[in-house]
Design a protein that fits this description.
Elements lengths: L12 H7 L5 E2 L6 E2 L2 H16 L6 H17 L7 H11 L1
Helix pairs in contact: 1-4, 2-3
Length: 94
């Protein structure tokens, strides 16, 4: 894409997670536990199902779905975005 001078947006893995409100931590203040590996992927998959009613067995497909939602929102005005989703879109376009 770079060689062909095509415009694109890079989405960092943390931005992808933030778009569905996954921080990588679970638990209450003072007793938080860091999510790793499969736990983090499961948290993202659960969050996508809660946010968008989309479910798939493959975490790669779920990640692609989030990327597609971000791309859609970059090109369409939507008033029902959450604060954290607006933050991700602002970061991507800056």
């Amino acid at each position: 894409m770079y060689k062909r001078k095509l415009k694109y947006h890079e989405i960092a893995p943390n931005a992808l997670k933030k778009f569905v409100n996954v921080t990588g931590w679970i638990g209450e203040e003072g007793s938080k536990k860091r999510l790793t590996g499969k736990e983090k992927k499961k948290a993202v998959m659960t969050a996508v199902e809660q946010h968008f009613s989309f479910k798939h067995a493959s975490d790669n497909v779920v990640d692609a779905y989030i990327l597609a939602r971000i791309a859609w929102h970059l090109h369409h005005q939507e008033l029902s975005l959450t604060r954290y989703q607006r933050e991700v879109l602002a970061k991507v376009t800056s």
